[in-house]
Structure formats: C-alpha cells, structure tokens
Amino acid sequence: MLILENVGKRVGGEDHLSGVSLSLERGTLNNLLGPTLSGKTSLMRIMAGLDAPTSGRVLIDHRDVTGIGVRDRDVAMVYQQFINYPTLTVYENIASPLRVARLPREEIDRRVREAAELLRLAPMLERTPLHLSGGQQQRCALARALVKQADLVLLDEPLANLDYKLREELRVELPRIFAASGAILVYATTEPEEALLLGGNTATLHEGRITQCGPTLEVYRRPVDLRTARAFSDPPLNSLPVTKRGTGVQAPDGTSVAVGASLAGLPDGAYTLAFRPHLLGLDPSKAGPRVLSAQGRVSVAEITGSESFIHLEVLGQKWVSLTHGVTRAAPGADMTVHVDTDRCFVFDADDQLVVVPDHAEAA
Amino acid sequence: MEKPLNNKAWFLVLPVFVLVAFSALLPLMTVVNYAFQDTFGNNQFFWAGTDWFEKLLHSDRFGEALIRQVLFSGLILAIEVPLGIAVALCMPRKGLWVPVCLVLMALPLLIPWNVVGTIWQIFGRVDIGLLGHVLYSLGIDYNYTQDPLSAWITVVVMDVWHWTSLVALLCYAGLQSIPDAFYQAARIDGASRWSVFRHIQLPKMDRVLLIAVLLRFMDSFMIYTEPFVVTGGGPGNSTTFLSIDLVKLAIGQFDLGPAAAMSLIYFLIILLMSWVFYTVMTKQDEQDQNRKTGGGE
Amino acid sequence: MARIDLVDLAHSYMSNPASRADYALKEMTLSWEDGGAYALLGPSGCGKTTLLNIMSGLLVPSQGRVLFDGRDMTQIITEDRNIAQVFQFPVIYDTMTVRQNLEFPLRNRGVPEAEIKTRVAEIAESLHMTAELDHKARGLTADAKQKISLGRGLVRQDTAAILFDEPLTVIDPHLKWVLRRQLKDLHRRYDFTMVYVTHDQTEALTFADKVVVMYDGEVVQVGTPEELFERPAHTFVGYFIGSPGMNVLPCRVEGSTAHVGGQALDLGRGYAPPAAGAKVELGVRPEFLGLAADGQGCPVTIQAMEDVGRYKIARVTLEGHPMAVVAPESARFDGDRARLSIDPGRINLYVNDHLVEGSL
Questions:
Q1: I need a labelling partner for B296 at 20 to 30 A (CA). Which of A7, A64, C15, C172 fits?
Q2: Which CATH number goes with the domain that contains B203?
C-alpha cells in the first residue's frame, strides 16, 4: 500500500503540490486526472522517489520512504515520450531491468517472452526500437515496466503521443495487462474519457491539490465541487447561475422553473445548476414542469456522424448540446433547448455539491 | 530540483574537496601571501601592505599590458564569434558531409597549444615559411619578428585559426536543435534569409553563444603559450599580454611580490567578467522558468 | 483562396520505385473546393503528411500535378504558393510580440503600413487576442501560440489555403473544444480553403465538411462525416471511424440473408452471390445494436460491460465472434446471456473489404 500524507512540493516560492493525501492499494488502477501543469507529474515524481516532498510523508507498506531515492524503491515508470535503449533489440530492452537484477537466464527469457506475448511484440523481439512504429515503441516501454514486476507502476500519459485508434485499443488492454501483476498502478491523464475507459479509482487534481478521490464512476457521478465536475467533463460541463426561491429557481434573465424536492428543500439563495452536454435536449417533447426551456443561439454545429455537438449561447452562457445521430443547425439560428432540473448537479455559493441527481433512474 | 537526501553523497565528494584544496586553494593562499609581503630570499618576509598593488596599478607597464590584453580579447571575440556563426550556418544540416565537416572542424582544437605556436612560427617565417615567403614574394612588407603590426596579425590570425571551430561547433549544436517546422513556417511567411537568421536562428542560438563568448573571452584573456612561442612577446613589448608580462615579472625578474599582486588583479578581472556572464545567463534561465509557469510538468 | 486539384498524384521516396508497395502515396486524384473545410484522416504512416508536404511545396511528387485554380503549381516553391500552415508544435517567433508575429508575413511581402495595421487589428479581434497584442509571444500558453500560427496565415489576403498538421496535439482536452469552435467560426468568417490533417477522428469529423480517409498510401473513402459513419466504403473506414469501431463479422450470404455461424440475419436488401473464394463480411456499428435480457434476437454471451458514464459498452460474442454493443447508461444484465437485435437497414456488406450495394 502506498500512502501519501499531506504531501507538499514547493519550488522557487511556488507551490506545485499542497496537502496531497492519498492511499493506494495493491492491485488497483488509480487515475490522476487534471489539466497540464495541475501537478500530475510532480506527484508521480514524488511517488517514484525522483524528488523529495518539501512537506509531508510517503509511506510504502507503513514504512516511511520519504527520503529514499528511486534506486532503493521498487518502481517502474513509463513516460509520454517513448523511451527505449536505441541500440538494443526489443528483447534486450525488455530484459534490461531483469539483467540489472541479475536474474537467471532462463527466468529472464521466460518473463521477456511472456511480456512480449501480452503486448503483442513477439514478432519483433529481434528488431531495434528505430525500426518500430510509435505504438510498438511504447508497447516495448510498457513491457519493460511490466517484466520488472515492480510494486509501483507509474504511467505518465503513456498514450498521449499515439494515434487515436491505437490509444483506444491500448486503453482496453492496459488494465487487463497490469491487473494480473498485483502492482499499484498510477496513470496520469488529461482526458476524462480516458479515466472513464480505464475505470478503477480517480483522483482529480487542480492547481496542485487533490479535489476528490474515489472510484472513477463515483467521482464522475458525484463530483464534490464545481471544479471537479468541470475537470471530469468532456465535452465541457454546462452551467447556469440561478437564484432559488421557494420551490423554484430563476435564471439571470428572469426565466423561472419549478424544481424537485431535494433542491426545493435547500435554503433560498444563489446556486449553480450544472449538467453534462448529453442532458441538454433539443426535442420539444422533453419539455415538462421541471424542465428548464430556454432560447439559444447556435454558434457552431459539429457533426461526427454518430453524434452532433451544437454549441449555443443560452441565457448568457456558452453551452454544448450532445445528441445522437445527425442534428443540423445553422450558425446564428435560434433553437429552444431543454434541460431537466432533476438531472442537474446543484452547487452552492461556495461551489460545493449540494444536490446529486439520480443517474441510474433518469436514463 | 531537490533530490531525496542522502548523506553518503557528501562522503563521496570529499576527495574532490581535498584535491581542490591542494591544487587550487593552497597555491592561491601562497600568492596572496606574496602579494602583501616583500622577500629577499632566506625565507625572510616583510609586511608590504598594499604597496605592490598601488605600484602596479600606477605602472605604465601593467597598464599597457592590460590594454593590449583587452584589445586582443576584443578583437578575438569580434572576429571569432561572427565567423563561427557564419561557418555554422554554412555547414550542412544533415547528410553524409556532416561527420566529415565535424571532424575537419575539430582538428585545430585537437592540436596542443605549443604545437600551434610552432606551426605558425614556422609558417610565418619569411625565409622558410610558406605564408611568410609568399607574402614577401608578393611584395608585402610582412615580418612578425620586426614589425609590431605583422606580429599582431599573426597572433590574431593564429588564434582565429585555432579557436573559431569551437564557436562554430557550439553554434552548430544550437542550430541543429531547431525543428524543421520553423524553417518551413518562415518560408511560408515569406521571410528573407536575414529574417530567418534574426528571428529564428539567432534566438535559438543565444544560450550557446553566451557560453561560446564566455569560453573564448576567458581563454583569450589568459592566452600565453601560442604568442610566447611565436613572438616571445615582441617585437619590443608589442605582443606582451598580461600572462606573458606576469611570467617575465615572476620568473625573469624574480619580483615575486609585484607578480603575486598582478596575479590577484588578473584573477579578479577574470572572476568579475565570469560573474557578469553568469548573471546574464541565469537571468535568462529564470525567464525561461517563469515562462513555463509551474514548471512541474 | 483557391480551388486545389491534385491530378494523378503519386509519390515514392525511392529513386526507382519498382512496385506499387514502393509508393508512399499511391496514384490519386482529389479536389479541394474553394472555401471548403477538409480533413485528411488516417493512422501514422498512411501518407497523409506526404500529401500535405506536396500541397505546401516542400515535396515535389514523383508523378502527377498540383493545380491551384487550374494553374500548375507542381514545381513552384513553397514561398510562391501562398499557402499557410499550422504545425503540430506551435511555431512562433519567440523574440517578437504577438503583434509583430502577426505583422511578419505582411511586412515580408511589403504590404503598406496602413493595411498591415487594419488587417492585424481585425485578425487579432477575431482570434480574441486583442488584449495580448503587445505581449511577448514566448510567454504564452500552447493554445495561444497555436492561434498566433493560425493568425499568421489569416492576415494574408492572398492565402490560397491553410493547412493544419495535427494542430491540437499539445492542447488540453477542454481547450480543444474552445479552439475547435473558434476555428469553425474563423472558417465561416474568412472562407479560406482549409485542409486539416489528423489521426484523431473526432477532430477530423467535427472540423470538416468532407473527410478524406487514407490507409496505406491510398484514399479509401471521401465523404461527409455522416456517410463515413453510416456507409463506410471499406472495412478500414468502419474500424477507424467510430469508437468503438464497426463490428465486422465473417458471414455467408444468400439473397437477403446472412449466415453468421448458425444464426441467420436479415440484411434488408438482396445481394448478388459473391464470387467464390471472396472474403465476405458484414459490418454493423455498435450504436445500431440493441441488447436485451430476453425476447427476440440472436443469443449472445456478455464478456464484459464497460461503464463510461454516459453510456456502457458491452463486449459480447455472437457465435464466437467478438462484438461491441453500445448500451444505455441504465443497462443492467444478470448473468452473461442476452439477446442481440440488429436493425437490418444498418447492416453493410463487404466483399474483399469493399462495400457492396444491395437492392431492395
């Protein structure tokens, strides 16, 4: 088990990380989700022992390893860049951590071939990385991390430099490949969709702080605050500041709508309604007593064939609507959009989550 | 970046400390010792205070040597830096000729300093040297043993021949780090050759250029062997630079006190210049750090 | 602005290409209409960058011609093509301010001062960068730098086309949405011919009116996002577009019925019998499949359910063939047995990887 206690990292008067507490179990996959510069890499470097934290402690299996360097820890790391030994064959690349550990030759051979099989590198074991495609190079780096059978495997946006389709395939394979190893797997990503596809647990990072940590779907469905909800939405989250009075809420332009019991039960005041783009409907049949309907002006329509993203200006906000199939909308056109307030997250004036919609029922 | 603490590390650098103490600190202390005292041998010392420094700073001999030195370094920088950049720009970016060019460029750097001096001493001789003889046959009044201007030209050209490669190689490394996309973008933007140099190549070379200038300044400011071998500081004192003067003072005249004082001043000048360069360089680093705000990823 | 025609174009990096395999770009004829938004979509190594370099003039093709508004530009150098390009990694002039960056292409062409001023002001306005005009370009974030690179293309009024080479690679996901939206806006406003090269289907499909899908040096389909999604002309297009990609199952066809193992599926259309020995497959998108606990449909075995929040992906096997099914957020199954329903109108038939048309 890896435990971080109140870990902070200050570099040149600037906090790269502050108050990070995490507890990661063996055999789990943990996503670190956050935009560039949110502190994912800094955190991983501390986990690996490449850097020491300026405050707090790092414990592995209840042993304090805060000041212990990477060489004395059992860690494997894979980076965004494909890092292999350019002059060694794929076989030797994968075998390198085992050679360092002075394992018997038969054991090395067995493990290398096993890993190569798992990562579909068996036909190119005798080639050098220069003769491999990007995807194969990264698979080689992953295989090297895998054979090491380290306690802690850190993957820092390993798929970011790969083709979209390859990424899609490896996302499905990675959890399967590493699940068997029993290691603590940490996976940094900027993409919400990637975290969802990988599953496991997710910790969301924002400006060097963990905003929430828990099972991935739990974080997705119950983001504790607005920042986390925003970080975990792709396409971006739609939000609307409202004033709540009695059993209704009022949008900035005066549009009012009745709300459900859970929101009605809260004290009157300012709140933020937030919902993901697939909940912003364009179908008039979706109108109802607790459905907020508003006029929007289309700014751009993006059609992928399977889905359509309509970007709109609604009630002074920039919203996106995601619908299945093809929905055409001319830029500048007016459209009525609908959102069921029962399905919205509600955040209070401090951006903390106060009402969670029941997703399972609502589909 | 802070690294995890490891006390073993201090133990491992101890030998270096000891070595530096013996090779640098002790001699330096000896020099300081001499600089403030007077001695007539027999290990008898008399306190001289700042006498040597005052005398030295007021002496014409030191002043002239310093001017010659500054002039020499200035000339070297003014010639070698632009020339080095020009050579680097002319080198091929990729292909078979790259290693050939690199080896050719590295050749002068591999020759020992006194050999360089000897080569040019012979090369420039009017009676048997190729250069000297050709110039003489062409009717050009060239003789480095008698004419101060000829001596200066010889010494400067020799240094340019010896060290321009270093500047060129450093600049070449800087140029190689520019991605092709930058050149393509410039072509698309219709940039002239000069614009490409001014707005793409030069900004990407500024770091290595600073290092090149620093190295060339320090080296040329301390130059001794090559001009000593070629001209011995002459004709007259025309090519007597600080280090040559220093050696004359210390070894030739055994004026250990003034020589020590001169060494210290010499040392301080170089230290000051290095510090200036260092500040300029780190300031730029800081800017770069700020640019990647956060710097954590 | 210009119409661009690529006529009988092919390219090989070898000096004496002997076989078809030696060509990085196999013979093709393509047209980019004036003012159109196009995407070149394909995996790495499919030849899309080669094609881009031929258009921008960095590469002279081994054969064929490049026409701008009918004028042969094949041998014309980049500088004289009036092409603008946005690269994968932001290319900006570090030492200049944002304003100087935008002015640069105009100054190089000797445009009068007054015109430079109005043009730069206008472009900065549409890029939403007016406030940053006098900032040093080096201190900006990656997305701002990419906007400047684009701006340098937009300021010129003679730009024939703007080429994009995976321009959003270094941009964070939430900013990609913002930039894509701005890019579409700009395209509408300035009406330049734009060609966008990428391996990312979302970027290609959302940006372009027409997408050119490339595979192994060949153009396998040119179509609107809708056509590519609903009627992939090649199994590769089916696989490459959509996530998860199209399910492709080997089958046997008799008239309007396909046999997958012991299961008979209605194809909705009648097909002529394929040639003997041909590879016959049916393709159907995971989005057009329905999964129910019981009732009508083919029996399938559920291998795994992936919950991605907004929907679920069911990995099932039909007669031993793996398939993906997109199921709603609320889908729940007890046990691993389920029934798969397929909308006959949504099944495409492929013979030797190419789409064949049936008749109703």
A1: A64
A2: 1.10.3720.10
| Closest Cβ opposite residue B192 in set C56, C108, C152 | C108
How many cross-chain Cβ pairs, A to B, lie less than 8 Å apart? 46
Model confidence pLDDT, tens digit, residues C333-344: 888 899 999 988
Task: Residues C247-356: name the CATH superfamily.
Answer: Nucleic acid-binding proteins (2.40.50.140)
**Is residue B183, in this structure, part of any structural domain at all?**
yes
Beta strands in C93-246 (DSSP E): 161-165, 193-198, 210-215, 218-223
Of B187, B195, B291, the CB nearest to C78: B187
Q: Which residues have C-beta within 8 Å of that of residue B117, sequence separation ≥ 6? A: B158, B225, B226, B227, B228, B229, B230
CATH architecture of C4-240: 3-Layer(aba) Sandwich (3.40)
Which residue bears the tokens 């020491």? A52
- Identity of the residue in A42, A52, A69 whose CB atom sits nearest the CB atom of B296: A42
Q: Is A188 exposed, middle or buried (0-12, 13-18, 19+ CB in 10 A)?
A: buried
CA distance C7 to A87: 42
Q: Is residue A220 within 8 angstroms of chain C, CB to CB?
A: yes
Chain B residues with beta carbon closer than 8 angstroms to that of A38: 297
- Domain boundaries in chain C? 4-240, 247-356
pLDDT tens readout for residues A305-355: 889 999 999 998 999 999 988 888 888 999 999 999 888 999 999 999 999
The band of B287, judged by pLDDT with boundaries at 50, 70 and 90, is low
Residue of A nearest to C224 (CA): A305
Question: Positive or negative CA dihedral for C305, C342, C212, C179?
Answer: negative
In a domain, residue B290? The reply is no
Question: Cβ contact (<8 Å) for A39 and B297?
Answer: yes
Work out how many domains chain B is built from and give that number: 1
Do residues A158 and A81 lie in contact, with contact meaning Cβ atoms separated by under 8 Å?
no
Assigned domain for B15 exists: no
State CA A98 to chain mean position distance: 32
Reduced to 3 states, what is the DSSP secondary structure of residue B164?
helix
- Please write the tens of the pLDDT for every residue from B222-255: 888 777 777 777 787 777 787 887 787 777 777 7
Domain range for B151 = 59-254
- The single residue listed with the structure tokens 């074991």 is A125
Query: So what's the pLDDT on residue B284?
Result: 65
pTM for this model (two decimals): 0.84
Window 280-339 of A, Cβ < 8 Å to B: none
Q: Residue A258: phi, psi to the nearest 5?
A: -75, 150
